[in-house]
Amino acid sequence: MTYHPKSEFLRVIIERGFLADCTNLQELDEALNKGMVTAYIGYDATAASLHVGHLLNIMLLRWFQKTGNKPITLMGGGTTKVGDPSFRADERPLLTPAQIDSNIDGMQQVFARYLDYDNGENVALMRNNAEWLDELNYLDFLRDIGRHFSVNRMLSFESVKSRLDREQSLSFLEFNYMILQAYDFLELNRRYGCLLQMGGSDQWGNIVNGIDLTRRVLDNEIYGLTTPLLTTSDGKKMGKSQGGAIWLNAEMLSPYEFWQFWRNTTDADTGRFLKLYTELPVEECDRLGALEGSEINQAKIILANEVTKLLHGEEAAKAAEATAREVFEKGGMGDDLPTVEFTAEEFGEGISIVQLFVKTGLSGSGKEAKRLFADNGAKVNDQDHKDAGLFVTPDMLKEPMKLSAGKKRHALVVLKD
């Protein structure tokens, strides 16, 4: 029998496709129905920006706050020093404290677009787990917390087991990660009455550990909820593109490129992504997702506009759509196209066209760029171009040069005076 929740939050996220698993759906629903609940999601500071892979759970926090609850964004200033081994083939590179702090600064800019940290009874909180993890005494921690963990059980979790089954090394440092994440949940419950941890389904084992630890140490009942690990309809991991990660900070990926990523959504994913990444009514998402032929392109433009508006603002979304129309419908340059500028000194006597495709991010390597030329996928100034041996001299850049990889990816090369 399918459970029909009473709380607005669970009704919204189930209808829109956010729910993968929950430790006790009925009890959580009752807690949410009684009044405001506090929940958190943790983010390790492994890069200077969050990327599209994080956006699903950021939207989950946004819906949590919009339905009257209190979200906590927990920055992993402490856990990043260890590194989450979940489903990884190798150990994460260790970052310095200064790098971690710098990454946290970059990540905070994004959360401020989606959550309200300033107003209302259910104002969002941002905390850093270094606040308690940096102060831990190792022997006290082993005695008070470590004794509640069974190594046998920890080895049985899929995130660890998959690494060991492939006979890939798992350091003792990484093995401690799940204990530290469990301790985060305990601390947030103790300090803020946090009842719920949410995260991607790859975090299920870590979340369950935190629930068990809090029950043993504080005798408190808390809950875990996970979202599905998203893949696109062609089986690719959500958020990856030929040019690399789709970053959420404008300094690392322009609003136009972000908009273009969503505009390039496959037909089969459009309706599902509208429900997950926008706030349009579910009925409208279903209607748009069911469009066929050339009409589905309008749905993709709506998807791109709505997602870009949430992250970068309405003006950026409008500018991105205008640039796209200029580039695709009129064959123009478009002011907001990704642009790589060279000084005369940097450009020297010239650069090969293959290297320009790499430097603009249109190709991941010289080999990939040469294959693009061989497959007739490269254009220079909107003209088909097959000569991968072209050497671009300063004289050829008196006007900006437009490079195109296929029909949808473009960049400008500009020589500064």
In words, what does this structure look like?
With 417 residues, this protein is an alpha/beta fold. It folds into three domains: 8-227, Rossmann fold (3-Layer(aba) Sandwich), CATH 3.40.50.620; 254-328, Tyrosyl-Transfer RNA Synthetase (Orthogonal Bundle), CATH 1.10.240.10; 339-415, RNA-binding S4 domain (Structural Genomics Hypothetical 15.5 Kd Protein In mrcA-pckA Intergenic Region, Chain A), CATH 3.10.290. It has helices spanning 8-16, 25-34, 52-66, 97-114, 130-133, 138-144, 151-156, 158-165, 172-175, 177-192, 204-218, 255-263, 270-277, 282-289, 296-312, 314-328, 344-347, 353-359, 366-374; strands at residues 21-22, 38-44, 70-76, 125-128, 196-200, 223-227, 240-241, 244-245, 339-342, 351-352, 378-380, 383-384, 391-392, 401-405, 409-415. A hairpin with a 2-residue loop joins β11 (378-380) and β12. The radius of gyration is 24 Å and the shape is globular. The relative contact order is 0.10.
